[in-house]
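Summary for the steering committee. The consortium agreed at its last meeting that each partner would contribute one worked example illustrating the joint modelling workflow. Our contribution is presented below. We chose a case with several input lines so that the handling of multiple components could be demonstrated. No manual editing was applied between input and output; the record is shown as generated.
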Amino acid sequence: MSDEREDYARQENELDDLYQDIILDHYRHPRHKGELSAPTACEEGYNPLCGDEILVDIEVTDGVVSDIAQRGSGCSISQSSASMMSEAIVGEKIADVKGLIESFTAMMRGSDDVDWDELGDLEAMAGVRKFPVRVKCATLAWHTLSQAIEKAKFA
Amino acid sequence: MTTIERTGALDMARIRKDFPILERKVYGQPLVYFDNAATSQKPRQVIDALTRYYETSNANIHRAVHRLGEEATAEYESARAKVARFINAPSPECIVFTRNTSESINLIAYAWGRANVAEGDEIVITQMEHHSNFVPWQQLAKEKGAKLVVIGVKDDQTLDLDAGLSSYLSERTKIVALAHANNTVGTINPVKELAAEAHKVGALVLIDAAQSVPHMPVDVQDIDCDFLAFSAHKMLGPTGVGVLYGRRELLEEMPPFLTGGEMISRVSVDETTWNEVPAKFEAGTPNIADVIAFGAAIDYLSDLGMQNVRKHEKEITEYALRRLRQIERLTIYGPDDIDIHGGAISFNYPGVHPHDVGTIVDRRGVAIRSGHGCNQPLMRSLGIAGVARASFYVYNTAEEVDVFIDALGDVGERFSG
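What follows is the complete predicted structure of the assembly.
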């Protein structure tokens, strides 16, 4: 019986790590929600398994992400991830954004050999790793951004 | 007060002992399996039948003259006879084994549909169809230039038949294809009345019974449908076996779907004549072992009695609905009348995505479904992307509903504020 209680507590902790305040805050109050009137690049991401969808518009000026907008629908993890991503990359150089995408996806793949300082608040997403079926929710916005950048062929 | 014995004619303790998987724990908690509309669990009797076949009778069927081949053939054909009796088909020859419900419906859409539906003809389906009874007809209509007529759904997720089925029918209607029971919101449709109505204009009727045959008595002669499709794995049987019931004269008139071994009578370089039904529709070596184990599943359900199965599920569903309605702000879909409500309940927490609901209750050992449930046209009509769904079967208890409701409390707590 005490085993069952221990397991119960462990699951509580993992759920706490998944649904951290910062994640729920971004879910309830998404940043950069909307669309850009003249984006440099835009891309749509879709997860047919769960129906999550994300649209990302970016505006790039002199190799720097000068503005971003995202919209779509989905679970708390996919939506908060898109919101946190937008906040993290606006004002950053394309080369740095590419590096951040690498670091974020490496973290979500389970690697701890990442630059936690570079990730900053995004570290909160590490809790998703204990929920393998939800990892795709967290990475959807990032894959979509990556495709937008690739298509636009920024230097 | 809820106790395990509360569901009348069924001995719940005995039934639950028959299902080995119910002994396992998930994240340290007893498994509460509420994803039965997706697939059911299997009793020891079915698992044993599968093992016994491979250990004692394994051989290819219908051709061998040796003893094992004879035994395997007899067991395979005996399962066909059991299926026929189970749905009161006039004879075992009306039963075709396929891989699943989707393949059964595709067989009709391809073999019957390509031969009988022409440009300008009409195919009637409903907005609440599972994709497996939606996409094959949509594609057939596109290919033939036929018109796809879709019966709408009302606010309580029952079919919009206010103007009668006749308002959707014409002399060009070739087939009416609809679900007996919906897989997401649980609506049970009046298929017998609709079949009679459709026959008046000379249309055929196909029933997607994937969510009804496992859960309630179904009599194909009483419904008077022309085709009926369902899957073994949703009714305690193994995966990989589907059933197509067809009126014998229709199956005889139809061209084959797949060609090759077993389905032929004579083959020469220039031409081939087809085998008799149902062999004509079972090309190649079938899923012998799983069909035989499916026979054991039908025995199991027959012993329980399908009236008792339905009664039990009705009680569990009614109890779950009552508990769910006590949760503030929860949106519950589906009809209010329990007599037209199957054992699947769909709901949404306002402001919480169904996947988050699914994840949280999973960590309490409760398996539910979240998403569109292969019902995208229905979800679109509701203006939502998905739902959380709990669906019950004969081994589920009111105590498990209590565990589920407690787990839902955690969803509310985490997402409030």
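Residues 322 and 412 of chain B are 18 Å apart (CA to CA). The first strand of chain B starts at residue 25 and ends at 26.
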